[in-house]
Amino acid sequence: MNEILSKLVVVSLSISLWTGRKKLSPEDLGLDFSKLPPEKLATLGSKKICDPEKLAVFSALKRRAERQCEAVGVRFLGGYAIPEDKADEVMKILDGVRDEFEKEKQEFLSEYDRSLREWIDANPEWAAIIEKGVEPASTAARRLGFAVQAFKVKNIDGLDKGLNEHASTLSERLIYEINQQARQAWEESYKGRPSVTRKALRPIKSMLEKLRGLEFLSPYLLTLAVQVEEVLASLPKSGPIEGRNLTSLIGILHVLGDLPLDEVPAEEEDEVAETILLETRSAEPVSLPSEWFF
Q1: Are the CB atoms for 140 and 109 separated by under 8 Å?
Q2: pLDDT tens digits, residue range 9-39?
Q3: Are 21 and 48 in contact (CB under 8 A)?
Q4: Helices 87-110 + 52-72 axis angle, to 10
Q5: pLDDT, mean of residues 131-147
Q6: 129-132: long-range contacts (C-beta < 8 A, 24 or more apart)?
């Protein structure tokens, strides 16, 4: 396991957001507290003291950082295990996202009071409720945060049982994430279509890049990556993809996504089944923890 860990860098994202929401109280709505059910049975929810559109950029930047890690890595120890040779590139991108987050934060804070006033003015009938929940800009400043750390993990003799057990599941975790990506690609770009454009190849190429980067986790991953490359190499270099070429793509997508054949049109079932058989004949089966599917 030391050899595998030596090829990985763990990237940890610590990104906190300020939601601009406050707990809604009975007094906000003029309700008699004594006539309400206890909180263990029901709550009144929250009120928005800030325009959600002003905060959307922070959620988008957080998601962008997560997508960058997911593109080349697999979840591990609360962060993402990424190939060591990808670490510099990933960290440069994440540093850029962090700088953008900080810039947006400073702009948001500089306009904080005016934005809140505009939100109150846009909702005059609820002005009193909003004003009661307003927090100082310093509160939003404390809660909006973006930090990223990268570190190596090393075994400690005699104390590494848990780490080894966790690391031994990395290949299965990667296969699970590839399954989800393949199923999403199938639903969004392939299902029910007699032909696809070359744009539909992007998710398969992304999955291939991820498999190649982490192929050292298991011989099965290398086998799978080679099979995907062979299918992609057999496609025409331009134009729409249809007929037997599309059938081959659907076959490899079903291998990646572990999709049932009943998702395939009846007239293509035999050809796709043949492709799946060819693509999987030399691959070792992988058992995935059932809890990952819920």
Answers
A1: yes
A2: 999 999 999 999 988 888 888 887 777 888 8
A3: yes
A4: 180
A5: 94
A6: 129/24, 129/28, 129/29, 129/47, 130/47, 130/48, 130/49, 132/28
Q: Over 60: is that where the pLDDT of 51 sits?
A: yes
Residue among 8, 17, 13 nearest 69 (CA): 13
* Cα atoms in the Cβ-side hemisphere of radius 13 Å centred on 201: 20
pTM for the whole thing? 0.80
Burial of residue 90, with CB atoms counted within 10 A of its CB: 0-12 exposed, 13-18 middle, 19 or more buried: buried
Region 222-237 average pLDDT: 92
Integer-rounded Cα radius of gyration of the chain: 25
Q: In sequence order, which residues have a C-beta less than 8 Å from that of residue 238 and are 6 or more positions away?
A: 198
Q: Are strands 46-48 and 21-23 parallel, antiparallel or unpaired?
A: antiparallel
Per-residue pLDDT averaged across 89-97, rounded?
97
List own/partner pairs for 129-137 with CB under 8 A and 24 or more apart: 129/24, 129/28, 129/29, 129/47, 130/47, 130/48, 130/49, 132/28, 133/22, 133/47, 133/49, 134/49, 135/22, 135/49, 137/109, 137/112, 137/113
Contact 86, 135 (CB under 8 A): no
Per-residue pLDDT tens over the stretch 233-252: 999 988 999 999 999 999 89
Q: How do the domains of the chain map onto residue ranges?
A: 1-151, 162-267
- For residue 227, pLDDT over 50 is answered with yes
CA–CA separation, 73 vs 7, rounded Å?
12
**Interatomic CA distance for residues 91 and 73, integer angstroms:** 12
User: How confident is residue 268, by pLDDT bands cut at 50, 70 and 90?
Assistant: low
Q: What's the CA angle centered on 77, arms 73 and 82, to 5 degrees?
A: 20
